[in-house]
Amino acid sequence: MSIDDSRPPCASVCAFALEHPGIVVAAFLLGLIAIAALAAPLIAPQNPFDLASFDVLDANLPPRWLAGNDPRFLLGTDSQGRDLLSAILYGTRISLTVGILAVTIQAAIGIPLGLIAGYVGGSVDSLISRIADVQLSLSTLILAIITLALVRAGLGGETLGRLAVPLLVLVIGLAEWPYFARTARAATFGESAKDHVRAARALGVSDGAIVRQHILPNILSPLIVVATTQVAGAIMAEAALSFLGLGLPVTQPSLGTLIRSGYDLIFAGVWWVTVLPGLTLVGILVAVNLLGDVLRDALDPRLTPR
Amino acid sequence: MQALGAPLGFVVKRAAQAILVMLAIAVIAFAVKGALGDPLREIVGEAVPEIERAELRHKLGLDAPWPTQLARYLGHAAQGDLGQSYIYKRPTLEVVLAKFPASFELVLAASLMVLLISLPAGIYCAVKPQSLGARLILGLSVLGISVPVFLTGIILISVFSVWLGWLPAFGRGETIRIGFWESGLLSLDGLKHLILPAITLSSIMLPLFIRLVRGAMLDQLGADYVRTARAKGASRLRVWLHHALRNALLPLVALGGLQIGNMLAFTLLTETVFQWPGMGFLFLEAVTRADVPLITTYLVAVGFLFVVTNTIADVVNLRLDPRITLEGQR
Fold it and tell me: What is d(CA A214, CA A208) in angstroms, rounded to the nearest whole number?
């Protein structure tokens, strides 16, 4: 690139981090979470999906720092004797997978529709915007609850458990594309009026190529902000559905399933089975939301308070 | 916006839309019923031979073409007959409506808390954006958005019920019956049971509404008329509350209206955590036990609530927007 930046890239990153201390916390948390999720099979002491690897006799053991613990289980065990640390590591992996895949679907539907609406305009635009409005006024969570509840009532809990991951990804993915579409549409409007796009059009570049090469690369930053908040939303939706028993089964627990399975135990004083996965979930969501906030402030100067 | 013409025309148009949506929901409910439930199984059980079944199916009109069956379903639905519940052996509408007061009182209590806290907090964050308090509120709201509603409920139960033993964790407690309405608001026990679920439900909406109020107020405070009012010598408080807040309410009602569906979902989650005997809790019970008529009735009831609240939000918006009212007076 011919752009001459006299400061080394590291310095600008450091300056940015100093200006937005939130990003340091977010980056640190996200790094930890990403490592935990990616390396779960390597670092987990036990495979929580393998029923043979744990023993009911080890059920409900407290974490290492409480009396009555078993040194084999750092964070204690759940009601089936499963090592909670392993379950949380794998659960994080599943929660993140569902969240990221669902947002990929949202983006794959929403961004093209938004680009078309913003670039073509006119009646195409008003049709797409209208559908997006209607879709948004129906809440994702209630739609997802009803859809999965109907699947469960029709096919039974076991089938639902087997199909849980693709179903969750589809339901959460299909419901929230309007957020991407709206952002892409608004940004495309602004970008289409710029000189480089008009120049490309005057030179006879095809519409498809203009959108792909001249508009899309320039509207990525608001889309990245949307993607961040959407990932947090999708992870939370998955946890809520699993908590209701409409998501992943106990044999293949996500964080929401773990919280659900430990919920009955809090009255017996066995709080860790619910609270520890819960804290993990909150940690993930705080980190992703913080990142989204910092990115939004950094990329959209209008929103910073005066 | 031009389509809004006169308020009467607007209301008629909105009502027609609402009826259309309800019709669509009823058709969906009919389809769900057809796909999931075999009414014969419920009436005669599994043991009856196929010939007898066919006979009975004919007698009940279940072998009629689906448009005929749909017409019959819609006809019955219009008269309030949505079928019998498998579990409760009573008309499903009766079962669902009996649970409505519980859900309504929970939502009412939570909404009041959201309003009473988010308005002052949001205004404060908008007028004093650099103050420590505003930063604290916004920081806490990031945290609040990040705690799922069911987890808030579980944490509150662990602390206030299990650990401290101050408040009950489950159910509605003592209720007092007024006509068909079973109220938990009139007894001390009922109110005590309401506290934790109401805090839980409001906790998830609160951060969002604080941000909405703040955003709407910030938009208004930057406007020229606010500067003019200040220059004319109007006091700060008067400008904030009389000028800016009034105009901020408009986008607030519109954006708040979009949250109705979410509120339904969050209510369902809260009811599950606290075993609050409301409509959402009933729905999950119906799902677990495959009570198809009850499931479809819940869908119709929730669709109806959704349509009604959305229409109300639109009409309120109409009342708040002086531009629309002026046109109506002409």
Answer: 10
Which residues does chain B have with pLDDT short of 70? 1-7, 37-48, 60-62, 320-330
Q: What is the pLDDT of residues A144-181, one digit of tens each?
A: 888 888 888 777 777 777 888 888 899 888 888 889 99
Are the Cβ atoms of A153 and B287 closer than 8 angstroms? yes
Give me the residue from B262, B266, B287 closest to A152, CB to CB: B287
Q: Is the dihedral of CA B268, B274, B279, B285 positive or negative?
A: positive
CA-CA-CA-CA dihedral for A42, A44, A46, A47, to nearest 10: -70
Cross-chain residue pair B150–A243, CB shorter than 8 Å: yes
Find the CB nearest B146 among A141, A244, A289.
A289
Q: Are B87 and B284 in contact (CB under 8 A)?
A: no
**Does the CB of B133 have a partner CB in chain A at under 8 Å?**
no
Q: Which 3-state string (H, E, C) describes chain B?
A: CHHHCCHHHHHHHHHHHHHHHHHHHHHHHHHHHHHHCCHHHHHHCCCCCHHHHHHHHHHCCCCCCHHHHHHHHHHHHHCCCCCECCCCCCEHHHHHHHHHHHHHHHHHHHHHHHHHHHHHHHHHHHHCCCCHHHHHHHHHHHHHHHCCHHHHHHHHHHHHHHHCCCCCCCCCCCCEEECCEEECCCCHHHHHHHHHHHHHHHHHHHHHHHHHHHHHHHHHHCCHHHHHHHHCCCCHHHHHHHHHHHHHHHHHHHHHHCCHHHHHHHHHHHHHHHCCCCHHHHHHHHHHCCCHHHHHHHHHHHHHHHHHHHHHHHHHHHHHCHHHHHHHHC
The tens digit of pLDDT for each residue in A250-294 reads 778 888 888 888 887 877 777 788 888 888 899 888 888 888 877
Q: Which residues pair with B176 in a beta bridge?
A: B183
Q: What is the ipTM of this complex?
A: 0.77
Regarding pTM above 0.90, the answer is no
Two structure tokens written together for B237: 């408080």
Q: Which of B112, B76, B116, B117 is nearest to B93 (CA)?
A: B76
B238 to each of A271, B163, B235, how far by Cα in Å? 50, 46, 5
CB A90 within 8 A of CB A97: no
